[in-house]
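Structure, all two chains, one model.
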Amino acid sequence: MNTWTKRKWRGLFLIFLILAACSPSPTLDEQLPPLPGTNPFEQADSDGGVRLGGYGAGLVDVDPLQGEPLLYSGEPIQLSYFLQGTGSETEVGLMLFLDGVPQPHQIVKTNQQNDAPPPDQEMVMSKHRVSGDGRVEFTVAFTPVTGAAGDELGLNAVFLFEPSFSPKTENQTFGIYHDGRFQIPLRVIMNTSVPQQAEYYICDVETTPIPQSEKKSDELNPSGRISQPHFLFYAGDFYYPNKLIAKNGQIDLTASIYGGIEAAYRVTVFVNHQPIQIAGHPHFIIATRYDQISTCRFTLDIHDYGRLNSLYAVMVPAGQSYKDNDIYGVKTSSILLLNDVAGTAVPSQEIPLSTGVGPTAPIADADLTDLLVENKIFPQYSKLLIRSETDNKLLIWSDAAALFDLGSKSLLRKKELVTSLSHQEVIFAENMIGVFTKDPDCLECSTYLERYDGEFTLIDSVDLSQLLALKARLLSPSQCALSQSGQKIACLNAETNQVLIYNFQSQKQMPAFDFSTSSRMDFRGMSGLTFAGNDRYLAFVAQESSGCGFGILDLEREQLVDYKKWDSIHETDIQTTKNAVYFHEQWKGPAYPPAGKIFKFDLAMLQMQEIQLADKEESQYVTISPTGKYIATVVNTAPPGAAYTAGSIKVYDAQTMTLIRQIDLERGFPDLAFDETNRSLFAWFWVDENIIKLIRYVF
Amino acid sequence: MKNLFKVGILLAFVFSSLVVSTGAYAAPSHVLRQTIPSNFTIGSQFYGSGASRYATASTNIISPKPQNKAGVKCELQDNAGSRIDYKTKTGVFGGPGVSVTCSNLTQNTGRLVLFSTHDMWVNATSYVEYRQIESSR
């Protein structure tokens, strides 16, 4: 290389260095609006601060600023997001809202290595974790929860900071944990309808003028009208609480919105990241007015929840409002909500096994058979039924009705029941016990409903054939249901498959639900009718011309909310909690083997979820605890051909499906009832044809 | 040779641009917030004394579109964890920055804790930082 060439290359290298050092700002920054010359905040930055976390988030391969819509044509919509670490490992939750309605989604792909969210499981919120210098990309898929062909709906994504954070004691609060960040809304164009449409329940709001002190008038805005929306979520007159205590398991709350343009916002209230129903509605609409504060008041019932809970509301512009640049959604800050009737402040996951909770809690398993023997309760004609009551009491219903105090092991009351070999269906309602009864040998005899109060006194005995003006042979106890309030009944007309509903309070028969006019004309019969969701919904199992299915009716809107064909579904056992309906499987021969599935229909989300059990046999005998917190299963472990049964009981945490306790009985196949306040399970079973046992197992 | 020189300059220019525009490439992996845009400046600070203590949280605002409302939030708590004040403020499109002040007008003495949330947008990507500081008096 000659000198000239060397000089040229030195020059080239020098130019390279100069360019490298003096090249313009990063490409990222080139696209940003200009920044002020001196940042006014740099001087205020404190040295004493602690960084709690942070992240960057956005969409992969979709630029929401371009306004390209997502299309729904029958196949699930897929979206890919990224999370960018910004210095320390951070957990981030994702929630989607379509037209303001919580939109469950499932993870179909993620490059997260550790603690990846479960794939192919529908979730209202998925949780992701990104390291301080990492980048996580994941793809979610969802089928719209609402929308008719031709609709154009807004899809909002909200990221939550450290959603698993939970105060360990009553003296801690959430601070900024669970903070929610709305992303740029996307448009979803519905080329085809989905079966269900979200309800549009408008809250009856109070309006009060925005105080003058809130307004700031100037030359450009002489009226002082507030251009941006403001959201308040509080109890009573106390704004911005970070801790609230329920009274008797209930709390009065207020949601207010003011400012911005006149618009409609859909409000969903979440407890422990799950939507909670307000007066039987999964969400409600607040319509705002110029210069007014629109306030919706409601009562939250959490008496079935644990002691420490998170509470927040998500308020999202509904309808076409999402397109407006001046309004947006908000997730309110998380509030620690204490349930005063939930026993103890110790979080349930920290309770050691077999110690129970609270002053009345059992400390060990207990054989309660003596309660039956000493008080001469022996089921000769009727099945033995048990319900765990509040205050450590136990209700037994068989040939006699009895109430026991388990603390003192004393009989509080007992009443012999007039029993016969009649066909009976017993339903434990909130404040009464309902018994549907009919002589099985008399087809033309009436079906009666007998209602008993808490003192076991017969309130009334109603001839249902007369009440429903139906021939006696068309009614059967197994095809009738009593609602939880005890004020409604539903019975199936076996000839027409119409569901007849009568309201005792209004003394009126409500419009019958007629499947022959719905898209489900192939139903040959129905069974298992069960009320749910404050008497609003009716769950059922349908016999089709081939196989079976199960579904939910919305009695208020007189429509079928959901229906799923599943041949091995249990035809009579449908269980409910305040917020969900549970179906499970039944052995129906080798052609329909159980798949180990429990189907949970979430009444707030109006979504069906599948719970997969480890052993396929387990799904045939399932007991759900009153709040849905625990699931118990029983399988027979006696050898094939044995002349006896041996039940193996498994108790699971329903959230994680972690096995909490397993009890293997040497003899007997038990029925079960939960007392989840005291973390115990009552099991009663026949050891042989003459001996019945009643055991309380703690877990 | 003259043409080779021109090509060299061009290559050098392209390469240097690449090196700088991908900030993560230039910075070592242990650098805190290496991937946060350098113009994302946040602050949180206590002022005053006695029953007139207050704290501010601030951030500069980059909003590519009016609906991307970046902003700040502050939550001031007393030593027992009770919320004394909570405020949020949203930035104005094109504005230089925003700050919000949480005020304490009741606690004469004792530790105060400020939680602050600072966010911004870079095109369609949102960045957020969470901080906590305690009063020194």
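Chain B is about 20% helix and 40% strand.
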